[in-house]
Amino acid sequence: MRKLKCLLILLLVIVTPFLLSACKSAESPNSTQDKKVTINFFNQKPEITTQYQKLIKMYEKKHPNVSVQLTTSGQGGGAAALQSKFSSGEAPDIIMLGGLPEIDRYKEHLLTLKNMSATKNTLPRLISGGMTEKHRLVGIPVDLEAYGWVINKEVFQKAGIDPNRIHNYAEFVSAVQKIDAQKDKLRLQGVFGFNGADTNSITSMSAQFTSDYYKNDQVKAFDSKKFPWTKEERMKQYLQLVKQYSVKPILSVKYDESIQDLLFNGKVAMIPQGNWVIPTLDGLQKGWVQQKMEMLPYYVKDDGSDELLTGSSWYLGLTKDHPSHEKAAKDFINWMYNSKEAQDVIINEMRFVPATKDFDIKRLSDDVSKEIYEVGISKDAVTPIHKQYPNGFANEVIGPIVQRYLVGKTTWENLKKVISNQYKQLKTVQSGQ
C-alpha cells in the first residue's frame, strides 16, 4: 500500500503541470477574445454625429469586444478641443484632421497608413492632402466634396435661364443680371445669398482663385510662403459682383440662414457652398436636391474648361499613443471604408461622395453627387487648397479683410497687402523658420 501511495503521488507530481498547461492553453483563445478594447474617435463634423453613432452601433454589434467612444467638437471649436485632448494626455485613437497644418501639428503622434486596405483605392490626387512633409501617408480623405455655386434650379427656370448653357464668366454675369432684372417678379431678396458673416465660407471661396496654381500638390501648397495672386482680377470681379447683387446687409447673412431659408425657399438664386448642404436640404424636404439643386463652377479660365473644384476638407488619422488600441482602430476604419453596410450609411444617410477609385456611381442617390464623382475622377480635376492655408489665416486674416472690402471699408490694394503680408508671416512662424 505504501508503494502504491508513493506511485500515485509521483504520477500526480508529473501529470499535474501538463494538465494545468493544457487547461491554460484551452482557455487562452477565449481570454483574448474576452478582453475588451475601447477606442476613442474624435470627430470635427457635428452634422454627421448621428450617422457616425449608427456606424459605431453596427460595428459594436458585430464586434462585442470593441467599444468606440465618439467625441464631437466642431463649428470652429474642433481644433482647440483636439489640442486640449493631446495636452491633457488623452490623445484619441482616431482623429479627424482639417488639412496639412493640423496634420503637421500632430505628425509625431500619427501612424503610417500606407498598407491599410482603406487607403488602397484613394483617389491619387487626394493622397498628398494626407501626407507629412516627408511624404508619409497619415490621413485618409473622409469624402469627395465639391466647391462652387449651389443654385436653385426653379429660380433659374422661372427667370428663363438654362444653367447648362453657362460656360464662362461673361455668360455667368449675364445670367446674374437677367435674374436681378426680374427680382421683384421672382420675389427675390437678392441674386446671391452670400453668407458674409461666415469667414470660413469666404476662405473656401478664395480657393477658387488659388488652387490651380499648385496642380493638385497639397504639400506644395502647404509649404508655400506666398499667397498666389495669379487669378487676382477674376477674384476681384467676383467679389464686386457679390457686393452688388447679394442680399443686404451682406455681413448679416449667416451660414444656416443662407441654406435653410434663402436658397431652400427660393429667396435667392444661388449661394457659394458645396455638396455638404445636401443632407440639410433633403432633410427640409425629401427629394428637394434631385428636383431643385444644381451646382455651377466659378468661371476663372474663360476657355470653357472650368469645372467644380473637388477635394476633401477632412482626413482621418490614427494615433500611436495607445499601442494596444492600434489594431482595433485600424480594423474599425477598414470596415468603415470597405464594407458595403457601412458604405450604405455613408452614401445614403451622410450623403457623402466616396473619395475612391472605381466606385459604382449608380449607388449615389442624386444627380449632383453623380456629377461630383465624375468631375472628381477626371484627369483635369482640381483640388482646392484653402485647408493648407496657415493656422488662423481664415478667421483672423482673409475672412475679416474680405468682409471689410465687401462693405467698402478697405481698398483692393490694401486687401492684397494685408493678405500677402499676414500669409507670409503666419507661414514663416508656423514652419519654425
From TrEMBL:
Residues 1-21 form the signal peptide. PROSITE patterns: PROKAR_LIPOPROTEIN. InterPro entries: Bact_solute-bd_prot1, SBP. The keyword Nuclease does not apply. Transmembrane segments: none annotated. This is ABC-type sugar transport system, periplasmic component. It comes from Ligilactobacillus acidipiscis. It comes from the Bacteria. Keywords: Cell membrane, Lipoprotein, Membrane, Palmitate, Signal, Sugar transport, Transport. SUPFAM superfamilies: Periplasmic binding protein-like II.
